[in-house]
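Section 3.1: Structural characterization of target chains.
Under the original work plan, the team committed to producing a structural model for every single-chain target entering the pipeline before any wet-lab resources were allocated. The record below documents one such target. The sequence was received from the expression subgroup and is listed exactly as submitted; it comprises 290 residues.
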Amino acid sequence: MSVGFVGLGNMGQGMADNLLEKGAELTVFTRTPSKIEAMIDRGAAGATSVADLTRKVDVVLVCLPDVKTSRDLLLGEDGVFATCRPGQVVVDHSTVDIATSRACAESAEAKGAHFLDAPISGGPGGAADGTLSIMVGGNVDAFETAHEFFNKMGANVKLMGASGAGTAMKLINQLLVGVHTVAAAEAFALANSAGVDIQTAADLLAVSWGGSTMVDRSAPITAAREFPDSAAPVRNLDKDLGIIKSLATNEGLSLEMSLKSQEMFQHMMSQGKNDYDISGVLEVIEERSR
């Protein structure tokens, strides 16, 4: 079975690398020709467009940076669903809103194809290592068809429910990433104020109730204040929290901690810290402290 991959960015490159290295019959397309050429040199096939890729493969995987790009490449006039054929499986690994995932599912159904919303978690490191968490929404048959490729890219693959359930699960994850990152930053601000070494505090927290993945991740970055030019930049989390903010408004949900976290990352964006590491929210706390 052949697979196509669209989008060789921070996450997509590592995912495509794992597909190729683990024996998949892979075709790739991205907007940067040199990246396609590099993959061809390693044994992948290249496509000249999204439509060209879709015609060539059995399963189409896309991993794109934002909702607009996902909608353009999946739902646009020359996009995946304009070209797909009955029985084909289309998978979106991007983080989008639930409405976009459901629109994709409807477009796939109209063509007799299948759609899976399958966002990912684990960052560029997980993408490179093939240890991503992949949370999937869609029907069981399509999931089983795509599962062999998911297993080449991820260590934790789970069907969450019907179309939209994978996207909903990713937004739940990102809500917690945002809130926990801010909470960890507040804890480290307190540690700095009290003269407690951040890494020593994180080591103790790892065996205490106050520990979390984001404490473990943020501690060494915060201790070294290595915030600029991160592989986990503020702009990505700000985008995801913006989706959550809109969802909260539309659903009438009171997500006060999420919205406060979003405001703090939005403040960083306004300061031009788009590519700062998310743990750099510590600087917002310091700025607002006496």
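The chain has a mean pLDDT of 97.
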